Amino acid sequence: MRAHAHAGTLELPCRRRDSNADWDVSSYLQEYYSRVEPTEALTLRFLLRTLDQLPPPSRALEFGAGPTLHHALALCGRAREIHVADLLSANLRAIDLWRANDSTSHDWSQFTREILRLEDASIADDAAVARREALLRRRLTGVLPADARRVHPLGANCGSYDLVTSFFCADSATLSLQEWLDCMRNIMSLVAPGGTLVVGALCHCKRWRVGGKQHPSPCIDERHMQFAFDCAGFDRCSQVIEVAAVPDQASNGFESILLASARGPRATGPRSAVCQPRY
Asked: What is the pTM of this model?
């Protein structure tokens, strides 16, 4: 397998896509989000550090949110309007339950408190947590169906966003590097000219586990992330790509994660042929 930063081709294997029919929202939330795991603490730190360097976005999108809201809870301290999007209706229902303040919805207060702490808030008590969660309920104006495999992941008339975040989405739902690259290119198309993408991915992971079931991942690394940014025209000087060790997740199929951000091209145009892989 070869990856080239600026031009050329990427030689990739192709494999059959797994089904999402057996996805269990409750197991996923219980296993990964009953507490703030080191993986999520690292991700939140990276996201907040990136947000500190950006002007407040008027509209932000969390793409591939799954049934989670912790990234949106970080975004709502900066962005005036937030949309979340996901492929699975079960995930969107979980978000709608929380937005409606349903008593059966998942409790995100531990994550809210951690976000406030990371923001260096002088007060991160129950009242501050309640204020931040109420703020997200006001600013979360769209819960959208999405499919990263489509050229227009949110539909042809969705518009674009000053800030797009996508954590453990494309890499957690694709079997091959070709699929991942295509999905990333589609997600990147949602970034407004000069806007910013912040993304996280499992690093060197072939399969990850949740609830006793395994799901595919295309074993990406820093080279692939840079290749995806470059072939979509994202500014090379703005690219930040970090690898963070998470050894506590070895039993779940990965021991490190990629965290990355970059500024999109100033003007939109036809997609580069560089993004087309060759076998």
From this structure: 0.87
